[in-house]
Amino acid sequence: MLTKRVIPCLDVRNGKLTKGVKFKDNIDIGDPVETARRYYEDGADEIVFYDITASHEGRGIMLKVVEHVAEQIFIPFSVGGGIATVADMRDVLLAGAEKISVNSAAVKNPHIISEGAAAFGSQCIVVGMDVLRVPQSAAIPSGYEIVIHGGRKHMGIDALWWAQEAERLGAGELCVNSIDADGTKDGYELTLTRLIADHVRIPVIASGGAGSPQHMVDAVTKGRASAALIASIVHYGEYTVTDLKRYMAAQGVPVRTVW
Predict the structure, then answer these.
(1) What is the rounded CA–CA span in Å between residue 123 and residue 120?
(2) Which residue out of 42, 130, 158, 182 is catalytically annotated?
(3) Within a 10 A sphere around the Cβ of 148, how many other Cβ atoms?
(4) 185: alpha, beta or left, given left = phi > 0 and alpha = psi -120 to 50?
(5) Domains plus CATH for the chain?
(6) Taking CA 31 as the corner, what is the angle to CA 66 and CA 64, rounded to the nearest 5 degrees?
(7) Share of residues in the chain with pLDDT > 90 (%)
(8) Distance CA 116, CA 183 (A)
(9) Has 186 been annotated as catalytic?
(10) Residues 146-190: pLDDT tens digits?
(11) What whole-number distance in Å separates Cα of residue 197 and Cα of residue 76?
């Protein structure tokens, strides 16, 4: 049986680890390089790094920070933010990442997904989806809309349609982030997670809302996700990665053990 992954997420702004709630009111909380190293040593299965203002500010990702993180960890490392071309992807991979996460740029130019998959393989291409719950309509029948630029711009695109389109274009994985749940610590948006997971054949990462170990169990069982992305629950010292994985294992969830 495939193990379920626990993936700490480092949101980075101006070179500092930062965290907000529902994509707002971010505060700086630490050093991303030191934090990545600690999570790696504690048993994280992967690290995700997002330069959260790069797309909105129209600039490239901070490659030096990516390089410094990559030097400290020896697990898969996924990087996103401000990646708009295959050349940008190449630069990030050369800086030490194993995976590229595209979000806003992919919505605006979907061909970047297929171009990246052709150049580096689908296993390298993660499509991040920032999703907001909205009233159902003809344009958005699922009731979940894609937004970009850190939640600042509504796109009028149905999230389920976009997930299937990203898979068709060659994405190897989807990271489904609920803005409604982000940073709330009230649990993942399981309806959204399961909706996507049930309609694609590639792995789905649940993102947004983890506040307890049980939330993570729910994400990979009820939500049918392949992995659970975490941030606040470990950033503020409430739990360690090891704590979370021990709980998941005790509930019968297959995880990679390091203890």
Answers:
(1) 8
(2) 130
(3) 21
(4) left
(5) 5-250 (3.20.20.70)
(6) 25
(7) 75
(8) 30
(9) no
(10) 998 777 889 999 999 999 999 999 999 999 999 999 888 899 999
(11) 22
